[in-house]
Specification:
3 strands, three-stranded antiparallel β-sheet, 1 helix, elongated, mainly beta
Length: about 90
């Protein structure tokens, strides 16, 4: 059963309550009787083990360049370019 946290709009009291998903939300503060609102919190995710891109889906032997796009730079420097002058 999930735990929900509610905060009173009047006094600021926070209350944790275990409820079923199908249960109606809490409407009144137990301390002052004011209206409460349900707070939403992000869920922490920790990636462990296999099943993620870098370990299972990347091509084997693929090397990445500095841009990280997996393509090799095929440009030649001016000193590496073949000479177009002909010897006579």
């Amino acid at each position: 059963m999930p735990t929900y946290e509610y905060e009173c709009n009047r006094c600021g009291e926070r209350t944790e309550l275990q409820q079923r998903v199908s249960d109606p939300p809490l409407k009144k503060c137990g301390k002052c009787g004011g209206q409460v609102r349900k707070l939403v919190f992000p869920v922490g995710v920790i990636y462990k083990g296999s099943g993620f891109y870098t370990t299972d889906y990347a091509r084997k032997g693929a090397s990445r360049d500095d841009d990280g796009n997996g393509k090799k730079d095929t440009k030649l420097d001016s000193k590496d370019q073949p000479s177009t002058a002909t010897k006579t």
